[in-house]
Amino acid sequence: CEKPNSEYFYKLVKGKESEKEGGMRCEICIADRLKTTRDFAIKNEFDYFTTTLSISPHKSSQFINETGIKLSPKYLPADFKKNDGFKKSIELCKFYNIYRQTYCGCSFSFTI
Predict the structure, then answer these.
(1) Which of 21, 26, 39, 59 is the most exposed place for a label (fewest CB within 10 A)?
(2) Do residues 50 and 77 make contact, with C-beta atoms less than 8 angstroms apart?
(3) CA-to-CA distance for 102 and 4, rounded, in angstroms?
(4) Residue 26: other Cβ atoms inside 10 A
(5) Tens digits of per-residue pLDDT, 47-105?
(6) pTM exceeds 0.90 for this model
(7) DSSP symbol at 64
C-alpha cells in the first residue's frame, strides 16, 4: 500500500473494514507492502529485503515470512518478536529517545 490511508488502500481492503487487527485486512495490506518493497529492492539492485512488521504482537510472522518467500528468493525471513524482541524494541526506543509509532500505519489500527 503506497499510502496506507490512500484511496488505493481503501479499495484494496474494501469489505474488510471491520476485520480485527491482524486479520484478512492486514494480510492484504502486508502482501501489497511486501510487493512494493520487493519491487523497490529489485529496481535499486538490493541483495535482500525484509520487513520490521514481524515485531508487532498483532501481526503473524508466519504469514509475513511465507508471503515474502513466495514473492522473492531475496526475502530474508525474520521474527523480531522472538526472544522478547518487542519488549527490547520498546526499551531501546525509550533509551535512545526514539519516537515509536503505536500502530502499523493504517487508520483502522489507529487508537489514541
Answers:
(1) 39
(2) yes
(3) 15
(4) 25
(5) 999 999 899 888 999 999 999 999 999 999 999 999 999 999 999 999 999 998 877 87
(6) no
(7) H
